[in-house]
Specification:
Blueprint (H helix, E strand, L loop, with lengths): L1 E4 L3 E4 L7 E4 L4 E3 L3 H13 L2 E3 L23
Length: 74
């Protein structure tokens, strides 16, 4: 799950909780591990973060005109 932080939050940065990290406001974080998803769910419930929507990029493709081969007869 991807979340976007609404405010700065100091929280654990590994599963054991032995180190911390500042999760900064406005930054999108990928919370893919089980312990990260539990932490992200609490933040979503408390309004500290919002769920980020995947950005899709659209390309406009225009048709290319094919050149006609012309065969000249002698």
């Amino acid at each position: 799950m991807k979340i976007k932080m609404k405010q700065n939050k100091v929280a654990t940065s590994d599963e054991q909780g032995s180190s911390t990290q500042v999760y900064e406001a406005g930054v999108v974080y990928d919370m893919s591990a089980d312990w990260q998803m539990r932490m992200a769910s609490k933040w979503l419930d408390n309004g500290i973060a919002s769920q980020s929507v995947a950005k899709t990029q659209k390309k406009v493709i225009t048709e290319v005109q094919k050149k006609k081969k012309s065969i000249k007869k002698k």
